[in-house]
Structures are given as structure tokens and as C-alpha cells.
């Protein structure tokens, strides 16, 4: 199975640390600026239009078949897919869960993990990694309306949440705090969040045999020749990166919706603890109101102080 590697050492981590917002370098100068702007706008319109289709399970099934044919999956017994688990996201990033059906066990075939991240570009709150698992027993028919979480309204995501959570073999969300983002960089924090989600899955008896990762950068795989690795070392299993996998692959879309909904709940709870930043609305991203609140209230313990924070001078980047 093809494994796509990316920069995961200190240099790779640092390149991802900084800025939650991008600034134009042209500032309207030069004849090429309008053409570049139009090109970018056109590309975004094309992508948005292209992402309105429903995801499929084609790539998932190809990867599962390849794992089964090569015999590379880990032999294990797990709770059957009929066991449903209700999960509530807590304000501190932890979760409370309880099985609603009696536990059992059965031998299984290979398990594929669909992985997506949420909150990477936020300036406050945790970064999250959703991991949804599928195997040959998961129904081909997924919940109607399932698609990339970014293409859905908050109301639509909330309406789909229960059905999407019940569809895969299992799904969990891992969290890495703002302080972890500051200490490890975004790549290390993504690994920490993924390790958190994997630990929750392992506690339920599930271990994936391969990963389908949204995006083009493989932050999961440890570089064998890296001088310094950042964050936890994740399982050395095959990883395939796919651009827009959250739009095209059902298992990744499921991971993206569950992670987005649960992180939103965390930010709403944090908004009650730290009023004034309007996190219930902006979810920790750098809105104009968020920047104004930073100017007047200063930096909270939930802000990523290593990032560019609007309305805050660099020498004021200390948590209250």
C-alpha cells in the first residue's frame, strides 16, 4: 500500500506553527495582481462546486481489499459493530461514554481509519483529530447528507451527528490543548491529538491497520532519518494521503463531522468559562470580534500564544 511521507521533524513542525491568517504581499501593486486574485477566486469556486457531490466508499474498499489480500492486518477480537456508544464532549477536552448494548467479541478482518483534523487554523482552543474506523462489516449505505463538514452548516452538522457517529465501526476524537500547540508546534499537536483518539479506540478494542488521511501532507508517519521528532510517535502502519478526502471518502467525511461537532461543543463550554471572546460563535478562529476582545481583555489560557494573535503585540503574548 502506498505510503506518502511529508516533513515531520522540527523544520516541518515550525513551518506550521505560525500564522492563523494570511496576508497579501502585493497590496494591489502591479498589473499581475488582479489576474492572480481572479485566478484564486476561480479556483475556490471550482473547488466549492466540485465538492457538492456525495462521498463514496470506493477508495476505502480498495484499501481494505488490499490489506486483506496481503494479510497485513492485525489479528484481534473486538466488540461487534452492533454495539453503540453514546459520547459526550466535556469542556476540558475529555469525553464521557457508555455502551448501550451488551459487549461481545468476534474475529475481525482489516480495519481502515479515516482521519481528519479540526481547529488547525484557530487561534484559541484545542486542535482535534477525528478517527473513524470501517471494515468489511460496515454498511455500504451511509447516512444521507454525509459530506465534508466544511460544506455543511452548523445546524446540518448537529442534525447528522448521531447518525454519523453510529455508522462506522467506531469513531473517536482526540484533543491537543493550546498549550500543547505552543510547546510542540502544530504537527506535534496533531500527533498528540491522534494519539489521544487512538488510545480511546484501543480502550474499546479497536486498532486500525491503515490510515486514509485528508490532505497532501503526511504528518502521521515518523521520518526515519529525522534528527528530532516532534510529538508522539504514531503506529507505523500504511498511510495514504488524499487531497479533499473529507469530501470524497465517506469514512473521512464521518471523522470530519464528528470532530467538528464535538470541538464546537468544547468551544461553547469554554466560552462560558472565558466570556467576552465570543467563542460560542467564532469557535476560536480569528474573527474581527475575537481580535477586538483580545485587544481589550488580553490573552486567555486557551489562546495559542506562539501564533500571531490579532490585536495583541508580540510582547503581550502571555496567558493571564
From TrEMBL:
The lineage of its organism: Bacteria, Bacillati, Actinomycetota, Actinomycetes, Actinomycetales. Residues 1-57, 71-109 are annotated as: Disordered. GO terms for cellular component: cytoplasm; ribonuclease H2 complex. One of its GO terms (molecular function) is RNA binding. Manganese or magnesium. Binds 1 divalent metal ion per monomer in the absence of substrate. May bind a second metal ion after substrate binding. Its cofactor is Mn(2+); Mg(2+). Residues 37-50 have a biased composition (Basic residues). Residues 110-320 form the RNase H type-2 domain. This is Ribonuclease. The keyword Nuclease applies. Residues 13-36, 71-103 have a biased composition (Polar residues). It is found in: Cytoplasm. GO terms for biological process: DNA replication, removal of RNA primer; mismatch repair.
